[in-house]
Structure formats: structure tokens, C-alpha cells
């Protein structure tokens, strides 16, 4: 790789190559533009990338991958800690391993549908990342791909995904909502390890998503197969079709949060069905009623929940 610096009266431009038919240009505003066609170079180590060394001289703040480029190479932009904006053209088909690891100021990324593969640890440690629009063409979310992205709060997995690999979202400590389609047939053991204690996985019954949630003691919310919406009922605030200790815990947690003026984490429909005694508030009384019903059901009581609530009011 050759790097050239050109200085004019108004602008200093660094230029070089990063592929057989790809050149790059970094202007004095920190905008790095890659132009050309074909694949970028894959770098074995971060120090091999010209952009790792350039960052020590001038910060890269915005990255533009122009049309015609088909891949983003391994380790290309790892540890580019000042990058805030990344624009990827719809000719890019693959994003390499470690390509954007610890780009700590990156806030949002749109991965176009042209992308069919994202490498291991590609976005690991992007701690300011709050929004990801994942390509609808990838079949797996790779090992540790978004690990340690502590700014994320929710994830929607595309219908194209078959596998969520080990540690894919590990230690994303603020993620409280994940929607997983029925297309997913494998979820790695630590895929969501270290996410929020309030994490709710939403998906369809009898799928890998439900199995994973149950095996890892994660709240599971069921989607209706016909219209993709949650099917809640009185007492069943997680929408999984059963009334149990998970529902009681969910209601009690919501009550505790609202008591301290925090967002209770429920939508309007959930609040409606969480207020099981229908007194207009969701509180510890409602949680206690749900837990009592679950305990009675576990001993063979055949009452429906509606019948149980009516008996409490008599």
C-alpha cells in the first residue's frame, strides 16, 4: 500500500490504494472516500491497514464506500475511534472480520441488502452504536459480531437469518428487546449472554427462539402467526400463552419502575392485561394475584384465570 500526501492552499489530502482496483482519499475534514471496483485488501493485523496508521495523524470521521466496491476487508477500519458515520454502497457483498471493531464513536449503521456475510467481531466494541439496520440477505450473524455494543437497546433479526452464532450480542448490557423470526434454527449458547436483566425475546411458539429463552431463563413473548403481533390476555402479559411466575415477575418489575417514575417497560395492551383486578392501576396486588394463580395451577387447580379473579372479588 502506498500513501501520498498532497497539500494545496486550502486542503491537505492523503491518498493511497487498498485493493487492486481501489483507491482512497482522506480530506482535511476527516472524510475518507474509497473509490473503484472489486474487493478491498484483507489485512492480517490491524497495523497492516493504512487506515490504522493514518488515524494517528488525522482522525477519520466519516467513511464513504463508493459504488463498485464489493467487499470491506478484514481489519480495514478496526480501532478507528473517531468514525461517526459510515456509508456503505449497495454493491458491497461482504464485510470482513474485525473490520470495524472498536469504532467507539459510531452511532448508527445501515448494512444494505446487498451484503450477504458479516465477519466475526466486525462491530465488536462499538459502544456508541444505538441503531443497526441489518441486511435482509445474511444467513448468519457471526461470532461476536456485535459483542460489547453497550449502547444497543433493541434488535430485530431479519427473516433471512438461520443462525445467530455464539456471543453475537454478548455483553450488550442495555439490550432489553430482541425479535427473532422462525427462520432462525440455531442460537449460540452465549449469543445474548450479559444482556439486560429485563431482556424479552419475542418470537413464535415452538421455535428455536422460544427454546433458547426457556433454556436461559429469559422472558419470552409470543407473536401471533397470522399478523405478527403479540397475543396477550388477562394475566398473560408476556404473551406466551401461559400464566406463570414470569408474568408475576414482569408485573412486579413494571410496578417497581413506575413507582420511581421510570418507564415501566410495558405497552398499553400489556398494561391493560396486567391490571388483573381492574382497579385502574398496575401494582403489587396484581402481581400477587398472578403468582397465586400460578401456584394453585401447579397443584392441579382447574380454574381459568377469569374464574380465579372473580373468586377473589366475591
Structural class of the secondary elements? alpha/beta
Spatial extent as radius of gyration: 24 Å
Extract low-pLDDT stretches: none
Shape: elongated
Oligomer category: single chain
The amount of helix comes to 10-25%
Helix and strand succession?
A: EEEEHEEEEEEEEEEEEEHEHHHH
**Strand sequence of the main sheet, in spatial order?**
1-2-3-4-5-7
Biggest sheet record? 6 strands, mixed
Total beta-strand segments? 18
Task: Give a brief description.
The chain is α/β, with parallel strands linked by helices and 314 residues long.
List keywords for this structure.
single chain; 314 residues; alpha/beta; six-stranded mixed beta sheet; four-stranded parallel beta sheet; 6 helices; 19% helix; 20% strand
Question: What report would you give on this structure?
Answer:
By secondary structure, this protein is α/β, with parallel strands linked by helices. It has 6 helices and 18 strands. The strands form 5 sheets. Strands 1-2-3-4-5-7 form a 6-stranded mixed sheet, with no helix packed on it. Strands 13-15-17-18 form a 4-stranded parallel sheet, covered by helices on one side. Helix 3 (245-259) runs antiparallel to helix 5. The longest helix is centred in the last third of the chain and has 15 residues, at 245-259. It is elongated.
Amino acid at each position: 500500500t502506498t500513501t501520498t500526501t498532497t497539500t494545496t492552499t486550502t486542503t491537505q489530502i492523503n491518498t493511497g490504494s487498498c485493493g487492486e482496483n481501489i483507491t482512497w482519499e482522506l480530506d482535511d475534514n476527516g472524510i475518507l472516500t474509497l473509490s473503484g471496483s472489486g474487493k478491498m485488501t484483507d489485512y492480517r493485523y490491524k497495523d497492516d491497514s493504512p487506515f490504522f496508521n493514518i488515524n494517528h495523524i488525522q482522525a477519520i470521521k466519516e467513511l464513504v464506500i463508493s459504488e463498485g466496491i464489493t467487499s470491506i476487508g478484514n481489519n480495514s477500519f478496526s480501532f478507528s475511534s473517531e468514525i461517526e458515520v459510515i456509508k456503505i454502497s449497495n454493491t458491497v457483498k461482504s464485510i470482513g472480520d474485525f473490520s470495524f471493531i472498536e469504532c467507539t464513536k459510531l452511532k448508527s449503521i445501515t448494512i444494505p441488502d446487498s451484503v450477504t456475510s458479516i465477519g466475526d467481531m466486525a462491530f465488536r466494541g462499538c459502544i456508541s452504536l444505538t441503531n443497526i439496520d441489518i441486511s435482509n440477505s445474511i444467513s448468519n450473524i457471526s461470532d461476536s459480531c456485535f459483542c460489547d455494543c453497550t449502547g444497543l437497546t433493541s434488535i430485530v433479526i431479519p427473516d433471512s437469518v438461520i443462525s445467530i452464532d455464539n456471543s453475537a450480542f454478548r455483553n450488550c448490557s442495555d439490550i432489553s428487546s430482541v425479535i427473532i423470526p422462525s427462520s432462525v434454527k440455531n442460537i449460540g449458547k452465549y449469543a445474548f449472554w450479559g444482556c439486560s436483566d429485563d431482556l424479552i425475546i419475542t418470537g413464535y411458539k415452538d421455535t428455536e427462539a422460544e427454546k433458547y429463552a426457556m433454556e436461559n431463563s429469559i422472558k419470552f413473548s409470543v407473536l401471533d402467526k397470522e399478523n405478527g403481533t403479540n397475543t396477550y390476555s388477562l394475566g398473560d402479559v408476556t404473551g406466551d400463552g401461559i400464566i406463570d411466575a414470569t408474568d408475576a415477575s414482569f408485573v412486579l418489575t413494571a410496578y417497581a419502575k413506575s413507582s420511581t417514575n421510570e418507564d415501566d417497560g410495558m405497552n398499553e395492551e400489556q398494561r391493560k392485561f396486567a391490571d388483573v383486578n381492574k382497579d385502574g392501576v398496575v401494582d403489587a396486588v396484581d402481581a400477587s394475584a398472578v403468582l397465586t394463580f400460578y401456584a394453585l395451577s401447579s397443584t392441579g387447580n382447574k380454574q381459568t384465570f377469569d374464574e380465579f379473579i372473580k373468586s377473589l372479588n366475591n
